[in-house]
Amino acid sequence: MNFENNLAFAKAQDNSDSLRKFRAQFLFPKSKGKDFIYLCGNSLGLQPKVAQDVLKLQLDNWANYAVEGWFEGEEPWMFYHKELKKLMAPLVGASEAEVCPMNTLTVNLHLLMVSFYQPKEKRFKIIMEGGAFPSDQYAIESQVRFHGYDPKEAIIEVFPRAGESILRTEDILAQIKENGEEIALVLFGGINYYTGQWYDMKSITRAGHEIGAVVGFDLAHAAGNVPVKLHDWGVDFACWCSYKYQNSGPGGISGIFVHEKHFNTDLNRFAGWWGYQENKRFKMEKGFIPEAGADGWQVSCTQVMPMALYHASLQIFQSAGSIVPLRNKSITLTAYLEFIINQVNIELGIEQYKIITPQNSADRGAQLSIIAKEKGKEIFDGLVANHILGDWREPDVIRLSPIPLYNSFEDIYLTGKALLEVSKQVLEL
Length: 429
Ligand SMILES: *Cc1c(COP(=O)(O)O)cnc(C)c1O
What we know:
Its EC number is 3.7.1.3. The chain is of the alpha/beta class. The protein has helices at 7-15, 51-65, 80-92, 105-116, 134-146, 151-154, 169-178, 201-210, 230-233, 304-319, 323-348, 376-385, 409-427, and strands spanning 26-27, 30-31, 34-35, 37-38, 47-48, 99-102, 125-129, 155-158, 183-189, 214-218, 237-241, 254-258, 353-355, 368-372, 388-389, 391-393, 397-400. The longest helix is centred in the C-terminal third of the chain and has 26 residues, at 323-348. It is globular. Pyridoxal-5'-phosphate is lined by residues 104-106, 133, 135-136, 189, 193, 218, 220-221, 241.
């Protein structure tokens, strides 16, 4: 598409956007009575307006039914997670049985590694992306130690080549192959939080399986952002948080995926009563028998309040036609942001902004990570003062993520305009 850096063009794009109406379903942060342009949905998605109502409904259920709420009312809590499973499955390319909402992300990463990281003899290593989100690094390090290994020996990190900021798929695949007999687990992010790179999950999965390893993904920045096909790609397990691209609120519930090929196996797991065979759970018998499917990985009873929030936001995804139409808009919206950032460079007459996120839309989601060469933090603060909220990552990266459910082309145009003005001021150009 031929983009133009003017308001009329941006407005025309918005007018022909069939997803445009969804913006009105969200609450935008304000200061001095004016809404922010919100480009930080990669960190915390906006609040759907229905959030208060769905929480109120569950509070009413609690008030009216108390303990009977587990079995009474329109949506008994005992079975509430099933409603979410239906809506989660298409977002990650899974069957209903393969997904389940539970706990929070890092907790689930640990629980799944208990099942899927089974180091033995020579095969004890985990291969992962260098520069993974710190929580994942800590989780992996501590799992490795838990099994009695030294993280320095047991963890292989794949880094970009010197002078490059994103990973080449060929390098990831080569390192998986080279260390083939020693790798127990291939564990990557779907999209890297810092660079915005979407890894070639299908090829990574295939390469991992070819050397006899288990393959898992942390989809924190991918779920609800890009279409993934966990079942078809044969991914063994995955987990994600729902408060970033899926708008379920701070500390929102996490989702897990376990491929059906693992359902009838005797994988080790850290069990709890909620993962027990559902129809016999309340017999309170000795000896753990897991419920079939991903549900068998549950530990504690249903977290009704966070699930109600996730359910409400999943319904918005469903009414938008799930991930495919959103992704189509997202590709264009992010490409427009890229165009606008490059226009700012042109108008400044210097290469002040360098986008490290891959240029190819197949290698990225909504997010662009932009290195600000000079005075980045001052410029970022200037954007905030102009009602534009992205996020800042030390030492020099501004992350901006236009979200197809609630961002517009006009948002992007106005961001470019403000970025140009703020840059001129701060850089004294
Ligand atoms: C956001 C994020 C987390 C956060 O984990 P919580 O357990 O939800 O606090 C973990 N891993 C990755 C890759 C993330 O992007």
